[in-house]
Amino acid sequence: MSTSQKDDVEAGSDLLYPLMQESPNLRWAFIRKVYSILTLQLLATIGFAAMVANVRPVADFFGATWFGMIIYFVSIILVSTTVLCMLSVYRDKHPLNFILLGIFTLTFGFAFGVLAAFTSGRIIIETSIATTVVVVCLTVYTFWAAKRGQDFFFLVPFVLSIVVILIIFTVFQIFFPMGRMFDVLCSGLSVILFCAYIIFHTAMLIERDSYDDYIWASITLYLDVLNVFLNLLSIFGRRN
Questions:
Q1: HEC per residue, the chain
Q2: What is the C-alpha to C-alpha distance for residues 219 and 204, in angstroms, rounded to an integer?
Q3: Which is the most buried residue in 15, 46, 150, 218, by most CB within 10 A?
Q4: What is the spatial distance between Cα 94 and Cα 233, in angstroms, rounded to a whole number?
Q5: For the ranges 8-12, 140-144, 175-179, which has the lowest average pLDDT?
Q6: Checking phi first, is residue 179 left (phi over 0); if not, alpha (psi -120 to 50) or beta?
Q7: Transmembrane residues, as ranges (predicted)?
Q8: Domain definitions of the chain by residue range
Q9: What's the first-to-final CA gap in the chain, in angstroms?
Q10: Which band of pLDDT confidence, cut at 50, 70 and 90, is reported for residue 147?
Q11: In this predicted model, which residue has the larger pLDDT, 174 or 81?
Q12: What is the pLDDT of residues 182-192, one digit of tens each?
């Protein structure tokens, strides 16, 4: 099929929303850019995490000593927060925005590398497979529903309700520890929460008015995927 025929097929049959007025080619280009960046982020995270996990002295220092753990948590919070603030200012400055995005991604790659060093490889693989299936299914469903005019704003009160419930559960768990099953319940609610976030953020990606915020769009989905992975890892880890 020629390029012009392919564009005609996209323009004619792949409208993302029934009321869309513009040519869908621009929207598809934006979406492809976002998912390309997201894919590179996830691959970089996996690669850097594997490298950190295999350097045992580094993993042992940051994961098995109090001093290292303090540096670990403080540095991750400070670096990720600082980079996000800088990205909010320099999101349109090339190539600085991609450099900052790379630093942000490698920061989480380092965090996951230390985590993976103290987690069973089988559990990591199980969690990775489950996360991939969940994310792919939710993404396909969202695009399928979007083409039929589905509005996902109904998820907002649902998401807010789960956030409030999780905050209450966390407070109770701090002051009145309720055991492993309670932790699994909180992790399960968190998985549901971030699954809803993936659907909502994907729908917002499709409906987005600006084509310049691909950095923020990719970061949002990236954090949703990482949170699904972390909470599934918590469930699988406690199960074993």
A1: CCHHHHHHHHHHHCCCCCCCCCCHHHHHHHHHHHHHHHHHHHHHHHHHHHHHHHCHHHHHHHHHCHHHHHHHHHHHHHHHHHHHHHHHHHCCCCCHHHHHHHHHHHHHHHHHHHHHHCCCHHHHHHHHHHHHHHHHHHHHHHHHHHCCCCCCCCHHHHHHHHHHHHHHHHHHHHHCCCCHHHHHHHHHHHHHHHHHHHHHHHHHHHHCCCCCCHHHHHHHHHHHHHHHHHHHHHHHHHHC
A2: 13
A3: 218
A4: 36
A5: 8-12
A6: left
A7: 34-55, 67-90, 96-116, 123-146, 152-172, 184-203, 215-236
A8: 1-12+22-118, 121-240
A9: 51
A10: confident
A11: 81
A12: 778 888 889 99
Tokens of 82: 């600082």
Residue type for position 221: L
Q: What pLDDT, on a 0 to 100 scale, did the predictor assign at position 7? A: 47
Q: Note the pLDDT of residue 15.
A: 60
Amino acid at 238: R
Q: 57 preceded by cis ω (within 30°)? A: no
CA distance 77 to 111: 10
CA distance 170 to 168: 5
